[in-house]
Design a protein that fits this description.
Helix content is 21%, strand content 28%. The strands form four sheets. It has a ten-stranded mixed β-sheet with strand order 17-16-19-20-21-32-31-30-28-29, covered by helices on one side. The protein has an eight-stranded mixed β-sheet with strand order 2-3-4-15-14-13-11-12. It has 695 residues and is α/β, with parallel strands linked by helices.
Length: 695
C-alpha cells in the first residue's frame, strides 16, 4: 500500500516485504471442482494503524468483487499462516524501512548493498535484516552477509542439514532474482576451513570478541493447545458487541446458523470468523474488526492469525475442526462414499489392480500397495514369542490374540515388505507390547525395509482384506492356540460383508436377533446345522462370498434361508425374535478429505506439528519424522537421519495426534510406518510426480 492505494509489486520482488508497510496478496489455485481463492493482508511490524485499516478494507472490497468466494486472512510479520508461507517456497525476506521512508521494491542488478540476513526455519524459511555486527549471530541459525556481488552464507555450528540447504536455496533465489544471476555465493560451514571468506566477514563486521550466543528456539503452539477449539456466537446489542460461547469440541456443523456470524477460537493459535449467508452486510463488513477486538479481549498476542470464511466457501483447514463436514451433493472420487454408523453400506467398486503401478494416485485412493498377489506369513504371539500359525487357518483371527502378518511382494524385481500388527480387542497389554517388539525384530531381519502397519481389530485396511482372498474371519474372543482355556460357544453368528475375494470380511457379532441387518448375509452356526441368512438388501455376489465363509466356520450341513422365511429353530438359536436394522441403507456424503502433511517434533517433550501446505516430495528431509494424514489412514515417514528419540516416539505421536484432533477422530485409525527409500505406492500416490530415485 502506498499513500493508502494498492500498487502492484514487481514479480521479481515477490517474497520480499518491507517491515514498515502493509501488503495485499491474492492467490488462486485450480482444484478438482473449480478454483480456490485466498486473500491475505500482511502487516509489517512497523506499519501504521491507518495502513493496517486500509489493507483490511481493500481485502473486504476484493472479497465482494469476487462474490464472497475467497478465504480471507490477516497475517502479521513473523507469525504468518502455513498457507501464506507455502506461496514463497524459497523463503520470505523482511527488509528494514518502507515506502514512507523512501524505500521502493528495487529492480534487479543493484550491487551497492550491504546487509546481514538472519535466516530461520526448516520447513518455512524467513530471513530478517539484522544489525551488521557479530552480536547479531548465534550458534544455531544460518546468516547471509549480502554484499551485492558476493553473498556469504555462514552456517552456525549447531545447524542441521535442512537449515543449511534452505539457506542456500534462499541465497540462490536472491542471486537469480535480484542480481540477475550475477553474484558469487560462498559458504562457511566451519570457520577454520574458510579463511578467505572469514577475512571478508571480518573486514565488514570487525574482529569478533567473546562467545557466540545459543540459538533461541521458536515458541510454537503444541497440539494440545490447537485441539482446544471453542465456538462463539458474535452479535451486536444496543451498540455493544456480545460474544457468547456456544460449544467446545467436538464441534458439529449444525451449530453454524446461516443468519449469524461466529468466531471459532483454536486455542488462541488461530481465530476463524465464519459469516453466514443470511447475515447482515454490516456484520459481514465488521468481521476483521470483531476478530481483532476478540483477540484483544482474550489477551492474545496481536500477532494472532485470523481467517475469515464465507458460508459455503469454507477452507479445508476450517472444515477439519468439525467432527463431520458434509457438502451438498458431493460424491467421492472413484465412486467411493464415506458412510457412517450402523446402517451404512459401502457400494463396492470394482477397480483394475493392474493399473496401480501406472497410476500411483489410484493406489493411494484405493489404499492398496499392490494387487495382493504376494506371499503371506502369519505368526501368533504366544508366551510373548512368535509362534507360526498353520497356513490352513490363515485368515482366522481371534480377539484374544495378537498376530504378525508379513506380506512380501516384488516390485521392479526386488522384494518389498508390509508388516501388519493385528491387535485383538481382548489381548493383554503384555501381548500387545510383545507384538510391537517382535515386529521390530522381524523388521530388522528384513533389513529394516518393512512398512509397519498397526491394525486394530475391526478396523482392517483394504489391503489386509485382499491378501486373505475372501477368507478373513474375525472371532470376537478366544484364541487359536492349541490349549484353549475356555470352551468355544455352541452358537455363533457372523456378519459377512464383501462382493469378491478382494474385499470380503466376516465378523463375529453377538448371537442375538438384534444383530441382524437386512442389507447383509449372516452365517449362524449351531451344534447341528449352519444357516446362511440372506437379508433382502444383499446381492448374489455377497451370497457367494458368504458360502465360502460358511465352509470355514462350520463343518455342518448348510441351509440357505431368506429374510422373512425363517424356520422357528433359527429364532430359537438366537434366543427369540427381536427388532433389527432393516431400513435401506442411506449414504451420507462426507467431504473428501484433503491429505495433510506435518513435520513432527517431540524434542522438548511437547508434541509440536508444523503443517506443510501444498506439499511435495521435496518437503521430506532426511532428518525428519513426517506425518501424512489421509483421514482413513495415518502414515509416519521416517527419514534416514531422524533422531532416535523422535523415531521411537513416532507411533505415540500419531496416537496423540488422533486423540487431540479437533474433529474427534477414531483412535483405531490404522497407523503406517514408512521408511525413507522404501515408500509403498499407497504412500507415494499422495504426492505429485514422486521420484523413486531421489535419495
Amino acid at each position: 500500500l502506498q499513500n493508502m492505494k494498492m500498487v502492484p509489486v514487481p514479480e521479481k520482488a515477490y517474497g520480499t516485504f518491507f517491515e514498515g508497510d502493509c501488503y495485499v496478496i491474492l492467490h488462486t489455485k485450480r482444484t478438482s471442482h473449480g478454483s480456490a481463492v485466498d486473500l491475505h493482508y500482511w502487516i509489517g511490524k512497523d506499519s501504521s494503524q491507518d495502513e493496517q485499516g486500509a489493507a483490511a478494507m481493500y481485502v473486504t472490497q476484493l472479497d465482494n468483487v469476487l462474490r464472497g468466494n475467497p478465504v480471507q486472512h490477516r497475517e502479521v510479520q513473523g507469525h504468518e499462516s502455513e498457507t501464506f508461507q507455502s506461496y514463497f517456497r524459497n523463503g520470505i525476506i523482511y527488509k528494514k524501512g518502507g515506502v514512507a521512508s523512501g524505500f521502493k521494491h528495487v529492480e534487479t542488478n543493484m550491487y551497492n548493498i550491504k546487509r546481514l540476513l538472519h535466516v530461520k526455519g526448516k520447513k518455512h524459511v524467513s530471513a530478517t535484516e539484522v544489525a551488521l555486527s557479530w552480536d547479531s549471530f548465534n550458534k544455531g541459525d544460518v546468516f547471509l552477509l549480502d554484499l551485492g556481488k558476493v553473498l556469504i552464507q555462514w552456517n552456525g555450528p549447531n545447524c542441521n542439514i535442512a537449515e543449511k540447504s534452505r539457506g542456500l536455496a534462499l541465497a540462490r533465489s536472491i542471486r537469480d532474482g535480484e542480481r540477475g544471476g550475477r553474484a558469487q555465493i560462498g559458504i562457511i560451514d566451519s570457520e577454520k576451513d574458510s579463511p578467505d571468506l572469514m577475512q571478508i566477514m571480518k573486514m565488514v563486521l570487525g574482529e569478533r570478541r567473546g562467545e557466540l550466543r545459543d540459538a533461541i528456539p521458536d515458541a510454537k503452539a503444541d497440539e494440545l493447545q490447537k485441539a482446544n477449539v471453542r465456538l462463539y456466537h458474535v452479535y451486536e446489542k444496543d451498540n455493544d458487541l456480545v460474544v457468547q460461547e456456544v460449544a467446545t469440541r467436538p464441534l458439529t456443523q449444525d451449530l453454524l446458523q446461516h443468519e449469524d456470524c461466529y468466531i471459532l477460537d483454536q486455542g488462541g493459535f488461530k481465530i476463524y470468523v465464519w459469516r453466514g449467508k443470511a447475515s447482515s452486510p454490516e456484520e459481514k463488513k465488521a468481521a476483521f474488526t470483531r476478530a481483532v477486538g476478540f483477540i484483544q479481549a482474550k489477551g492474545y498476542p496481536s500477532s494472532t492469525n485470523v481467517e475469515v470464511i464465507n458460508d459455503g466457501a469454507e477452507s479445508a483447514m476450517f472444515k477439519q475442526l468439525f467432527q463431520r463436514w458434509t457438502e451438498k451433493d458431493e460424491t467421492q472420487g472413484l465412486g467411493k462414499v464415506y458412510t457412517t454408523g450402523k446402517i451404512a453400506k459401502v457400494e463396492q467398486v470394482k477397480f483394475d489392480t493392474t493399473q496401480l503401478h501406472a497410476r500411483p494416485e489410484l493406489a493411494a485412493e484405493q489404499r492398496m500397495v499392490d494387487d495382493a498377489s504376494g506371499e503371506v506369513e502369519v505368526w501368533r504371539i504366544e508366551d510373548l514369542q512368535m509362534q507360526p500359525v498353520n497356513p490352513k487357518t490363515y485368515g482366522q483371527f481371534y480377539g484374544g490374540d495378537c498376530y504378525l502378518v508379513l506380506y512380501t511382494y516384488l516390485r521392479s524385481g526386488r522384494p518389498h515388505y508390509v508388516l501388519y500388527m493385528w491387535q485383538g480387542r481382548h489381548a493383554s497389554v503384555d501381548e500387545i507390547t510383545a507384538c510391537a517388539l517382535n515386529a521390530i525384530e522381524l523388521d530388522k531381519k528384513h533389513g529394516d525395509e518393512a512398512v509397519q502397519v498397526r491394525v486394530t481389530m475391526g478396523k482392517e485396511p483394504a489391503h489386509f482384506l485382499a491378501i486373505f482372498k475372501g477368507k478373513l474371519v474375525i472371532y470376537e474372543g478366544g484364541t487359536s492356540r492349541a490349549q484353549k482355556s475356555t470352551p468355544e460357544p455352541a452358537i455363533r453368528l457372523f456378519q459377512v460383508r464383501g462382493t469378491d475375494e478382494m474385499n470380503t470380511k466376516a465378523t463375529e457379532v453377538p448371537a442375538r436377533a438384534s444383530s441382524l441387518n437386512s442389507n447383509d448375509v449372516f452365517v449362524l452356526t449351531t451344534s447341528q446345522v449352519c444357516y446362511l441368512w440372506c437379508g433382502k438388501g444383499c446381492s448374489g455376489d455377497e451370497r457367494e462370498m458368504a458360502k465360502m465363509v460358511a465352509d470355514i466356520v462350520s463343518k455342518r450341513d448348510k441351509h440357505t434361508i431368506l429374510e422373512g422365511q425363517e424356520p422357528a429353530e433359527f429364532w430359537e438359536a438366537l434366543g427369540g425374535k427381536a427388532p433389527y436394522a432393516s431400513e435401506k441403507r442411506f449414504q451420507e456424503q462426507i467431504t473428501h478429505y484433503q491429505p495433510r502433511l506435518f513435520e513432527c517434533s517431540n524434542q522438548t517433550g511437547r508434541f509440536i506439528m508444523t503443517e506443510v501446505v501444498g506439499f511435495c516430495q521435496e518437503d521430506l528431509d532426511e532428518d525428519d519424522v513426517m506425518l501424512l494424514d489421509t483421514w482413513e489412514e495415518i502414515f509416519l515417514w521416517i527419514g534416514k537421519a531422524s533422531n532416535t528419540y523422535e523415531k521411537n516416539e513416532a507411533i505415540a505421536s500419531a496416537k496423540e495426534y488422533l486423540k487431540n484432533h479437533p474433529a474427534g477422530r477414531d483412535l483405531a485409525t490404522p497407523i503406517i510406518l514408512v521408511k525413507q527409500g522404501y515408500e509403498p505406492l499407497n504412500f507415494t500416490g499422495w504426492f505429485n510426480a514422486w521420484d523413486p530415485y531421489k535419495w
